[in-house]
Amino acid sequence: MPDQLQLDATTAARLFKALGEPIRVELVGLVRRTEGQEACFCDLADQFDMPQSSLSHHLKILVQAGVLSRERRGTWSWYRVDNAAIDTLAQVLAPGGPLRDSSACCD
Amino acid sequence: MPDQLQLDATTAARLFKALGEPIRVELVGLVRRTEGQEACFCDLADQFDMPQSSLSHHLKILVQAGVLSRERRGTWSWYRVDNAAIDTLAQVLAPGGPLRDSSACCD
DNA sequence: GGCTTGGATTGACATTCGTCGATCCAGTCT
DNA sequence: AGACTGGATCGACGAATGTCAATCCAAGCC
Fold first, then answer.
1. Closest Cα to residue A26, out of B104, B19, B11?
2. Domain residues of chain A, as ranges?
3. pLDDT at B4 over 90
4. Average confidence (pLDDT) per 10 residues, chain A, 107 residues
5. CA–CA min distance A88, chain B (Å)
6. A86 and B98 in contact by Cβ < 8 A?
7. What is the model's pLDDT at position A100?
8. Which residues in chain A have Cβ-Cβ distances shorter than 8 Å to B93?
9. What's the topology of domain B7-93?
10. B66 — contact with chain A (CB < 8 Å)?
11. CATH class, range A5-93
12. Residue in B35, B86, B19, B26 with CA at minimum distance from that of residue A7
């Protein structure tokens, strides 16, 4: 990936911003480690002591950024981690990526 | 709720937030790809068409978050990428990390 | 000393963002 | 149909953030 850094920066920043809040990092982590890689809203609500509307708001931001995907199955909403988005950021931060020196691996 | 993740989430979110702006992603990338892994303010100012105070502000945020480090050498300020910070995020996003399924690599 | 330059800090402003109660909507059950 | 439930959306509020001009400070030069 050469210097289309301009475009990548916008994309990466959008994803980074979505993860720029501790609760949202925890949410993504929780969904990720849930059996089947997906969790319903009710499960997540049990884990966090915050109003339901706040939780829904943070999930919406993650969905809008493309970090999570939402699917309504019957009564419940299910959330999954979009691995492509995580992969995008991982590549940006990986050794040799735009933000990381290729020679500075795991010091 | 996983308490060990709590601490990590706060740290990770602080770094993510610092990178949650396109200009700052570009700044880090520019510093990283500069000869010697460090760039002075004047070099960076040449690359971006924005007021000097704005640029300084964004750099300060990156420094405060620990993504960049600043060193005043004589008249000029030099910036370097803190590889430990980038490494922290890379590990969070790496396959097997808190946000990434170990089995879901590059689907 | 006074002048100039690189760049950090300040202050004001508008915008965005997080928080949370209140409301609304879609499924489900009776 | 009406009642109930899971969750999304709305609205208001305060706090944080980006932008930029103006100012200030330190280092070099006359």
1. B11
2. 5-93
3. no
4. 62 98 97 94 96 98 98 96 96 90 56
5. 10
6. no
7. 86
8. 86, 89-90, 93
9. Arc Repressor Mutant, subunit A (1.10.10)
10. no
11. mainly alpha
12. B26
